[in-house]
């Protein structure tokens, strides 16, 4: 469809703008945030509560509205801070045979004094289904996750663009980033099954 074509072209243009790097430190410049569906529903609920409280002069309604709104704002800042300041490092992938899943390790480093929870990584732009790898990063520590993709043909392939995201703690906001690694992976031809017999002699 024309919409899918425009979306694919925009995605290719956007990914081409990303710098190639096997190590990425997340800052305010490369971390994005938007409300989730649950977040928009919470905003609508807060609006209804506020209108009802104003209309009926309900002091407890005001209290509930502002408590929920304050929790949502605090969750927004905490969600953004979960990714901001995190360092991602790609371990060089090993060669693989065609037809199998090409897996590679990503290490996450945090110098923060508090742990980071619910961080998910996936290959971006390969259909609508994302095979997420989820981990927590301890305070001033590191964690490792394994992400995989399936090359369509043999040869030397660049590692595809990766996406990291979190919805911690309330699920009302989605914070994400895109990462374009510079590493490449070598894909060998698939071995013949069953293998041919050895030559005589």
UniProtKB/TrEMBL annotation:
Q: Does the keyword Transmembrane apply?
A: yes
Ranges annotated as spanning the membrane: 31-54, 60-83
The source's superkingdom equals Bacteria
Could you list this entry's UniProt keywords, alphabetically sorted: Membrane, Transmembrane, Transmembrane helix
The record ties this protein, via PANTHER family, to: SLR1927 PROTEIN, SLR1927 PROTEIN-RELATED
Know the name of this protein? DUF58 domain-containing protein
Source organism per UniProt: Acidovorax delafieldii 2AN
């Amino acid at each position: 469809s024309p919409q899918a074509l425009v979306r694919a072209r925009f995605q290719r243009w956007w990914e081409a703008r990303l710098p190639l790097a096997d190590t990425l430190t997340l800052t305010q410049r490369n971390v994005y945030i938007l409300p989730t569906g649950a977040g928009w529903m919470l905003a609508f609920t807060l609006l209804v509560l506020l209108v009802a409280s104003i209309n009926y002069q309900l002091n407890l309604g005001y209290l509930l509205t502002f408590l929920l709104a304050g929790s949502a704002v605090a969750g927004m800042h905490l969600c953004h801070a979960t990714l901001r300041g995190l360092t991602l490092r790609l371990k060089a992938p090993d060669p693989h045979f065609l037809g199998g899943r090409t897996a590679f390790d990503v290490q996450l480093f945090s110098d923060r004094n508090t742990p980071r929870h619910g961080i998910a990584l996936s290959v971006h732009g390969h259909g609508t289904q994302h095979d997420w790898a989820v981990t927590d990063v301890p305070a001033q520590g590191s964690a490792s996750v394994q992400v995989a993709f399936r090359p369509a043909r043999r040869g030397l392939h660049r590692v595809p663009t990766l996406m990291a995201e979190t919805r911690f703690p309330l699920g009302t906001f989605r914070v994400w980033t895109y990462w374009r690694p510079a590493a490449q992976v070598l894909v060998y031809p698939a071995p013949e099954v069953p293998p041919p017999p050895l030559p005589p002699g």
